[in-house]
Each structure stands twice: as C-alpha cells, then as structure tokens.
C-alpha cells in the first residue's frame, strides 16, 4: 500500500512556543489512522498543517506525492477539496437549513442548480442515515444527529481523505456508538482514508488500523494495535493506561 500522507521533519512554532519539533509520519492509502496525544500536544496543529491551513516552519508534507509546503494559495485551495473535515463542535451554521449546510460547498463554489444540489444532499443524508431533514434547522437536531450532518457535509464532494477531530465528544453513549458505526461504514463504502483524533481511546482503537502518539512535539510511537500492545516504551504504556504515575509529568504535552 502506498502512502497518501507522508510527513518529514515537520516543525511548527507560535512565537517562542515550539509545538511540532520534527514530526515524521506516514499514512497509507485507505487506512483508518488514529492520532493520540495529550491536550495541547499539537494534534490539531498537525491536522491544520496537513490540510494546508497552517504553513510549517520546516519540513515536508506530501499529499498523494505532492509536497504541499511548496504550493501557492490557489493550489492550496484546490488541495483542500481532497479533505473532508469534521470538527469537534460540528460547526453547522444555525441560520441555514440542513440542506444549505450539507450543500454549502456546492452553493458557494459551483454553479450547480438548486434541484441538483438538493438531490446530492438527499443522497448524502441517506448515506449517514438521516433522511427527510433537508428543510429543518440545526437547532432542531440532537447532538448526535448534528455530528452526522457534519459528516455528510464533509463527504458530499467526494474527498480522498476524511479528517475527524474529536468526532464523539459531547454526545451520549448511544449516539457515540452510532457515529462509530457510521465512520466505519463510510470508510468501507467510500474506500476513503480516514484520519481521526480523539481523546476517547476506546473509540479510537475500535476504528483504527494504525495509530501514532504525539508527545513533546514528536511522534514517539507509530504502529498497529499489536505493536502498541508490545511496546516497551513506558511513556506510551502510561498514556494508554491513563496513569498519573510514570515518565510523563503532569505539565508535559
Ligand atoms: N494559531 C495559534 N497561535 C498560537 N498558538 C497556537 C495556535 N494554534 C495552536 N496553538 C498552540 O499550540 C499548542 C497545541 O495546540 P493544539 O490545538 O494543536 O493541541 P491539541 O493536541 O489539538 O489539544 P486538544 O486535545 O486539547 O484539542 C497549544 O499550546 C496551543 O495553544
Ligand atoms: Mg485539538
């Protein structure tokens, strides 16, 4: 399997604060990849670099063989269409209907006519298990349904890679289970590469083929679940067992 994402020595600081200090990572085409790490470790910053939303200070990021750190603004805008993004907060527009939210990209960036967009929205809502809600507003939905609408909005333009940043935060356990099944189902159906960041390790381990642990600005573990179980690295063990005692100190991210 080839690498759809390949990162070499990625460094990113904000003023004096070093967040990423030489990240190396490879994500294979078609896999579900999990990124774990403490709050503030730089997971979201890493995702933003991958999507071309932040420019790294150093390093290379290859997406499908293209080093995106060399792209100009217009090329980056095009690159972003390869990514579907599901934010933690769902980030739906409250003043737009579900149809307008899910079809947002087509309404904003294409000349497609409303009936055609509506048809695409209908099909995509069916994929996420929500039918007939085109004309209502986000406030009429539960948290779990909003997550699924956010997923519909992310997949509607057929991205190659779907990125979930905390997809199950803030919803009840039954809704969590539905979102997990949906992520898994879409992954299989759309033959897409999925990249997930979550603090919920149980959710992450259920979904992921492989994972990486970000600590101190570097990836200190990359591998599959079997390799994770066998690793001797006390930092990795401490994190996955959620233990307060061990080599990782309270303030270290
Ligand atoms: N635009 C920015 N300007 C300045 N500092 C930033 C910016 N974005 C992120 N940071 C800092 O970078 C660090 C990493 O932030 P990031 O949001 O990537 O963490 P995270 O691993 O996603 O945490 P969480 O699990 O809580 O979401 C934090 O200290 C944050 O304050
Ligand atoms: Mg984050």
Please count the beta strands (DSSP E, at least 2 residues each).
10
Bound molecules: adenosine-5'-triphosphate, magnesium ion
* Alpha-carbon distance between the two ends: 32 Å
Structural class: alpha/beta
Biggest sheet: strands side by side, in what order? 6-7-8-3-9-10
Q: How many domains comprise the coordinates?
A: 1
What is the number of helical segments per DSSP (H or I, 4+ residues)? 10
Commentary on this structure:
It is a single chain. With 253 residues, the chain is of the alpha/beta class. It has one domain (3-240): 3-Layer(aba) Sandwich (Rossmann fold). The protein contains ten helices and ten strands. It has helices at 43-50, 73-79, 98-102, 104-109, 114-127, 143-155, 173-190, 201-207, 225-230, 234-240, and strands at 3-14, 17-28, 32-37, 58-63, 66-67, 83-86, 161-165, 193-197, 210-215, 218-224. A six-stranded mixed beta sheet has the order 6-7-8-3-9-10, with helices on both faces. A four-stranded antiparallel beta sheet has the order 2-1-4-5, with helices on one face. Helix 5 packs across helix 6 and helix 6 (143-155) runs parallel beside helix 7 (173-190). The structure holds adenosine-5'-triphosphate and magnesium ion (MG).
């Amino acid at each position: 399997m080839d690498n759809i994402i390949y990162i070499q020595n990625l460094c990113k600081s904000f003023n004096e604060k070093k967040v990423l200090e030489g990240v190396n990572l490879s994500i294979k085409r078609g896999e579900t990849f999990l990124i774990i790490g403490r709050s503030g470790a730089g997971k979201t910053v890493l995702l933003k670099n991958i999507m071309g939303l932040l420019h790294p200070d150093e390093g290379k990021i290859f997406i499908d063989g293209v080093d995106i750190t060399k792209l100009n603004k217009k090329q980056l805008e095009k690159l972003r269409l390869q990514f579907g993004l599901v934010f933690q907060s769902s980030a739906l527009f409250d003043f737009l209907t579900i149809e307008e939210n899910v079809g947002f990209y087509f309404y904003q960036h294409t000349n497609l006519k409303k009936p055609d967009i509506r048809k695409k929205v209908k099909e995509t809502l069916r994929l996420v298990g929500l039918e007939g809600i085109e004309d209502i507003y986000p406030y009429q939905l539960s948290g779990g349904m909003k997550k699924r609408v956010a997923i519909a909005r992310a997949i509607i333009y057929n991205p190659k890679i779907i990125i979930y940043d905390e997809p199950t935060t803030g919803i009840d356990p039954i809704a969590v289970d539905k979102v997990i099944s949906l992520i898994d189902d879409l992954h299989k159906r759309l033959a897409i590469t999925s990249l997930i960041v979550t603090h919920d390790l149980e959710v992450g381990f259920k979904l992921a083929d492989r994972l990486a642990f970000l600590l101190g600005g570097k990836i200190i573990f990359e591998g599959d679940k079997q390799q994770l179980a066998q690793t001797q690295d006390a930092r990795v063990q401490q994190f996955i067992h959620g233990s307060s005692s061990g080599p990782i100190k309270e303030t270290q991210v």
